[in-house]
Each structure stands twice: as structure tokens, then as C-alpha cells.
TrEMBL record:
Primary localization class, coarse: membrane
Subcellular location: Membrane
Keywords assigned by UniProt, alphabetized: Membrane, Signal, Transmembrane, Transmembrane helix
The keyword Oxidoreductase appears for this protein: no
GO cellular component: Golgi apparatus; membrane
Species per Swiss-Prot/TrEMBL record: Gossypium tomentosum
Span of domain GOST seven transmembrane: 237-482
Name of the protein in its database record: GOST seven transmembrane domain-containing protein
UniProt topology in membrane: Multi-pass membrane protein
Transmembrane region(s): 20-44, 238-259, 271-290, 322-355, 375-395, 416-435, 455-477
Domain of life: Eukaryota
Short name of any one Pfam family annotated for the protein: GOST_TM
Presence of keyword Transmembrane: yes
Amino acid sequence: MMGNNREFICLSYDLIGNGYFQKLTFVVLIYFSCFAINQVGASIHEYQNQSFFRRSNSFFFHGGSEGLYASKLHVDPDKKPSPEENHLNGKSFIRFESITFRRPKESAEKKNEMQQKTGLVEAIIVEVKDREKIGGSYLHSAAICCTPDLSKEGSCNVGEVIIHQDPNYPYNPQRIQTFFEGKTEETTMVLQTVEINHTGMYYLYFMFCDPELMGTTISGRTVWRNPEGYLPGKMAPLMTYFGLMSLAYLGLGLVWFLWSVQYWKDIIQLQYHITAVIGLGMCEMALWYFEYANFNATGNRPMGITLWAVTFTAVKKTVSRLLLLVVSMGYGVVRPTLGGVIFKVLLLGLTYFVFSEALGLVENLGNIDDLTGKARLFLVLPVSLLDACFIIWIFSALSQTLEKLQIRRSMAKFALYRKFTNSLAISVLLSIAWVGYELYFNAADPLSELWQRAWIIPAFWNLLAFVLLVVICSLWAPSNNPTRYAYSEETGDELEEEGISLTSSSVLLAGEAANKQLERKERRASNADLFRLGEEVEEDKRE
């Protein structure tokens, strides 16, 4: 790409890139909660006296970006929306509401009060695949705004953003112009709705070309809507997904409950922990479903439900990892307690919860197009490192547990842990492969052109966690013989092995004693025969 097209792509990249421990935990959560509360906006994008930034020979403000599906019904752009039109099923649009531009007083005073048009601000709606149509790339120019030289060629008007219209699609990209009049410092866009007739990733920019408008600010909001609701296109499939996952956890919980009721007298401590993870997963998926459903209906993310959903997610992820860790250590199988290591386990779990909660708040309580790159990177790195710590510790503990079971010749438990180890190894390999795919996906699609497939990235992790939980449930399912993997049976195995050893020793000792006694009798018999033979010899001599 040449000229201004490079400038536009750079512009898009810039926008997209852009005791004691308990007290610390509380402070961190409060901080991120306050940060998130100020960011709530979702598909209703709010602008509060925000400034424009310079790019090439233009000034721009990024108004939002979302994946939108084509409208199924026609939207009348001149019709003023009524309150009962909050649920416009089948219509896809971007609506401009109360958009106000305010220019500096010094700039306004320079204008002629009788002049009608003394400043122009344009709203540009462009689909990502049509980004080359913005600016002077076709004219071998790096300019975004039309210059007098370009105007002489008849390709654009001075003071306007250069847009190359396709005769087949004359309304894409689409511009909406708003003018300042006379010496007024403020101007307001006419309330209007722009219908979306083609499915794609859309970007909204507010731009002006007049350097005298430098310092202009924007206020108001835009409302973005898909045919089925306010959920952005890349998030819409997740609502159905969370609904299905809620049913899956419900089914697993029902089966586990029936198992537990059937063998309630034989439940061991580890199975209570599994029950807690199933319950947390059920609540997590249900909360996300209701959060997305409300978001889809209103266009705003309900902060209360979102906070609960984020918290349940962080708690479930933490408890799940702790469960894998204590199972790998052989808790309840080769050791009755964790001993002194319990403090290290809890410290790692608490640290993971804090960073996971903070990351969830930053990702889910901001505007949809506010990727908060630096803040997210700051939190993704420690969460990734903590996950790596969990993996290393889990496999190290599994190695020690398998070694102990092999030494003690507990074949049933050894086979159980081998299956558990193989399942974990497969899940780790799948995770590594998926991380690689995710990195490739993000690198190959920096402008979200593949937004219709983006939902599978977070969906995979939830599905993998659920499958691993099902595996654990099947391995440690309640039964009428829980001692096959309980610590009490392990003690019995040791006593039984010791008893066998003692019995064998006793038999050997008894055998040795009997042999010694028999040898004594034989020696005595031999001595008696020799004595009798001696007496007979003496009697012969006397005779």
C-alpha cells in the first residue's frame, strides 16, 4: 500500500495497540474496580470532551469499532427513534446521539459572524476491507485531507477527507458532515441512524482538516446494534455458547449428585472439592449467559452481574488449579495432609486469584473497542507466569507421587495416577498448541477482519477446563469402595505388607530352630552310639 493508505493502517494499529498480603489484595481489587466502573460503555460508546489527534495533514478521533452483521430490515435514517424502538429486531445500524463538537474560542473569533460554514468536522464510517478508499493512496499522495493541488485534478474538495467511492457501493465509506456557523464555539450533529447493509468490521472516525480547529473536543455517544441485539458480532456467538455450557455443567452436576447420593456414606474429602468446582463452573457459565443476554438487550454491560461473573471465573480458575495441584501431591492417597507446604499452596492460589480477577475486570468492564493494551499486557504476563508455576509444580508432584506408589506396589492407585498424568499431559499439549494458534491468529489479523471466528479463542479454554473436570470426575467417581484411592487403604497396605514380612520372618525362624533341634538330636544319637561301641570294646578286652 502506498501514500495515505500506510498512514491509515498505522493509525489503525496505534488505536488497537492502545495480614499485609490481604490488604494488598483488597487495594488492588478496589483500584481495578474503580478503573472499570469509569469505563463501562459497551455497545453504547460515550465521548466526554475528548480531543482529536493529528495524523498526516488531518486530525482524527476514533469513535469505535465493532463487527456488524447486515441489517435484515430497512432502517429509515430520517425517522427519530422512539422509546419503544429499543428492541429493533432484525435491524443493524450506527446511531449518532447528541454528538457535540466544541472548538477553541480563539478559533471561533477569527471567523466571520455572517458566514454560514466556518468549520467542518466529518464522521467517517468505513469497513476494514475498504480502508484503501480513505486518503490519497490512489493519487500517489500521503495526504488524508484534500489539498489545493489535488482539488485541481477534480478528485476531491479542499478541506474534506479524501474518499474514493465505488460506483457499485456508493455509501461505503460513508461520510456525515457537520459545520460550525459564524463565530459559534459549538455545533451539534443532526440525530441520525446509518443502516448497515453489508456484514463486516466497521470503524468510526471523526475527522477535520482545518488546522484552525486544533483543540476541538467531542462529546456525546453513538449506539451500535446488530440485527439480533446490541452484542458486538464477535461476542454474539458466546451468548449461545455460555448457555450450552451452563446446561453441560448442570448435566455433570446432576450425574455427580446422583453418584454422591448413592454412595453418600463412602464420600471422601477430595470428592467434596470436586463438587465445589462443579458448582462454581455452573454458576460461572450461568452468570456469563445472563450478563451477555442483558448486554444484548440493553447495549450496556450490567456492572453488578459482570463483577459477579468475573469473580466466579477467577475463583473457579483458582480452585481448579489448586485441586489439580493437591491431587498431584497425592493428598488423601499417599499423604493425609499437605503439612507445611499448605501455606505455599495457598499463597500461590491467592496471588493467582488477585491477578486473574484484575485481568477479568480490565477485559470485561471497558468499552468493547477499548483493548487497554498496556494494562492488559501488564496483567496477562503475571497470570501466564503463575500458570507456568502451577504446571511445573503439578508435574513435579505427580512424578513424586507415582514414584511412591510404585515403590509401595499399590498397583491400583498407580494405574489411576498414570491415567490422570496422561490426561494432564494431553491437556497441556493442547494448551500449548492453542496458545500458538492464538498468537498466529492475532498476528495475522491485527484489524479484526476475522472477527466472526474470534469467539472460538476464549470458548476453547472453557471447553478444555470442562473436559478435564469430566476426566477427574470419572477417575475419582463416588463408589462403594472408596478405599481403592483413599489414604486409609494406603495405611492398610503398609500394615499388610509389614504383616506378611513378619509372618515370613517367623516361618523362617521357626524352620531354622527346627533344623537346629534336629541336628542336636542327631549329634546326641551319634554320641550315644559311639559310647555304646566303646563299652563293647572294653568288655571284649576284659574277656
